[in-house]
């Protein structure tokens, strides 16, 4: 046996009646003062008001578009595709600021590099060409890496040499 209380019956009645009420509410045009100058007012509107206006427009667009007013069509298009939020125009002189800050960062980096180089110790004595040639001879004498290295037959590489001659 199915029992329903009076509150359940009310809920069922309102659930059935709600879509019809929503349809009736969405068939009325949105007032012109609400949509007037929407391009200038949109950014300053509270988020709740923006959401309500967009939902009302969305409900109106679910119906026949021939019934939409010109103001509603313009407002719907501007809200959907207008230059606001992530599509807003970049601030003036943004490119110059980026170039300036990049130049400053590169200049500071170069200054730090130059300061470090000026206070650094001289290169070690093992970085001379003579020392590196002696290292090649030592490796040949030890028969180091006999398959592909300095000791291999027919080797044509530089081996350990990476510095210019002393006079250069």
From TrEMBL:
* Subcellular compartments: Mitochondrion inner membrane
Membrane topology annotation = Single-pass membrane protein
Q: What ranges does the record give for the region Disordered, renumbered to this chain?
A: 123-168
**InterPro entries under this entry?**
Cyt_c_oxidase_su4_fam (IPR004203), Cyt_c_oxidase_su4_sf (IPR036639)
Polar residues bias located where? 141-151
Keywords noted in UniProt:
Membrane, Mitochondrion, Mitochondrion inner membrane, Oxidoreductase, Transit peptide, Transmembrane, Transmembrane helix
The UniProt GO MF terms for this protein read:
oxidoreductase activity
Q: What is its main location?
A: mitochondrion
Give the record's pathway. Energy metabolism; oxidative phosphorylation
Which Gene Ontology cellular component terms are annotated? Answer: mitochondrial inner membrane; respiratory chain complex IV
**Annotated transmembrane regions:** 98-120
Give the family from UniProt: Belongs to the cytochrome c oxidase IV family.
What is the designated name of this protein? Answer: Cytochrome c oxidase polypeptide V
